[in-house]
Design goal:
43% strand; 171 residues; 2 helices; five-stranded mixed sheet; four-stranded antiparallel sheet; mainly beta
Length: 171
């Protein structure tokens, strides 16, 4: 069972239960075109269907920009042009490991661009559970499950450029 993408309910009493000692940086590409956001579509028996932004964890000796370029090539098969930093948030990700744990992730969101002729497709190393890459209309964000959960209420503002700075904690 992969709970990397499972988002169980969490409250203040359980948020830091099993907190791993290392903090992980993760970068995310916010790519908007014609009122749609480029998203990874994922599916599992446990969680059903959900959407995430392309991007992932930073490796040692890799800049944030290098991380985002590598992750997008792997996941969406595209060379991205990394633009401005949009926002930063803390995320306490529940993980199913030998002993259930929580990983503290610093989520870093950048405005990015893909080539005008880019057609959504999975890259050479898609994420676990990734089944597709799609343009999702911004007005449909509230109709689908996004991960992290709180991203659904913030993503339209991020994509529109209306939200900047530190967001605090995402649930």
């Amino acid at each position: 069972m992969d709970l990397y993408h499972y988002d169980p309910p969490m409250n203040e009493a359980t948020k830091h239960e099993g907190l791993e000692p290392q903090i992980r940086n993760a970068v995310r590409a916010v790519i908007v075109r014609d009122g749609a956001l480029l998203m990874q579509k994922k599916r599992s028996e446990l969680k059903g269907e959900w959407y995430t932004l392309p991007g992932g964890g930073q490796d040692v000796q890799e800049t944030l920009e290098e991380t985002l370029i590598r992750e997008c090539e792997e996941e969406i098969g595209a060379q991205v042009e990394v633009g401005e930093l949009l926002t930063v948030a803390d995320f306490f990700k529940q993980r199913e490991t030998t002993f259930p744990s929580t990983r503290h992730v610093i989520e870093i969101y950048y405005a990015c661009r893909v080539a005008d002729d880019y057609q959504p497709a999975s890259g050479h190393h898609p994420d676990k559970h990734q089944v597709d890459v799609v343009w999702l209309q911004l007005q449909r964000l509230s109709e689908v499950t996004l991960y992290p959960r709180d991203l659904s209420r913030l993503l339209a503002q991020i994509a529109d450029g209306a939200l900047r700075g530190y967001l605090g904690e995402l649930g």
